[in-house]
Amino acid sequence: MSSKKGLLEQIINSSFAGKLGVPQGEKLRRYRKGEPALDGPVVIGGEGRLAQGVREFLDPDFQFVGADTDIKKAAVIFDATGIRTPEDIRKLYEFFHPQMRKVRPCARFLVIGTTPELIEDADERIVQRSIEGFTRSLAKELLRGATAQLIYVDPAVTEDLSGLEAPVRFILSGKSAYVDGQVIRVDATHVDLPESWDAPAAGKVALVTGAARGGGPRHRCRPRYRRRHRPRPRP
To answer: Would you give the DSSP letter of residue 111?
Structure first.
């Protein structure tokens, strides 16, 4: 069955099928240890409170270019925390629209906003809430394996961006190849960053629950001691 499925996939994704009008799937950029997180430069826009900090913690591992350059970008980031009035919303369109034709396959689009529920000003709260709809619409418009995500950040976060760095790096990497149109929330809690971003969960224990319709028991990994010392079936 698997061999037949593999042959069918080869036929569907062949150049001959493409000439016949069969939609061709994009080969997604996946994570591989030791490889750069992105295969191209990053552009950061926006006049919010977090743009400079994001650039600083990404600077050692990523290359940055200006928004006006014609170089194909691998990631496009916009700090929308500075959007506070309905008139400011157009800045999202003005920034992202020209970039959509200047990106590489499997590009990453990221919007960073302020958590609406924690904003006191009514206009700013409404505007920040609307950013979620914009991001989901953007995700639907992207082609060739590109994705778009939104990160809402607690308004108390100004200097300590430790809680923001991990989700930003995850979104930019190949690990998020199948994540699209999602909203991630970051609070003001300080986070101890890993020694290596290739193995951020090294030495940690993951808890898998069965809340998703019993998915936990089916997908859990048995502890090593249970694999080694599980009882033998009786004859």
So the answer is: E
What the block records as the tokens of 160 is: 């300590």
Among 56, 131, 60, 69, CA closest to 103: 69
- The model's pLDDT over 199-223, given as tens digits with 9 standing for 90+, comes to 888 888 877 776 666 555 555 555 5
- Enumerate the β-bridge partners of residue 44: 77
**Whole-Å CA distances, 20 to 12, 64, 137:** 10, 40, 30
Q: Is the alpha carbon torsion for 128, 133, 137, 142 positive or negative?
A: positive
pLDDT tens digits for 117-127? Answer: 999 999 999 99
**Encoded tokens for 157:** 């976060």
Q: How far apart are CA 84 and CA 130, in angstroms?
A: 11
Using an 8 Å Cβ cutoff, are 160 and 189 in contact? Answer: no
Longest dimension (CA), the chain: 75
CB 114 within 8 A of CB 155: yes
3-state secondary structure of 8: helix
67 and 203 Cβ atoms separated by less than 8 Å: no
Amino acid, res. 14: S
pTM, entire model:
0.80
For 174-184, give one letter per residue: b (16+ CB within 10 A) or e: bebeeebbeeb
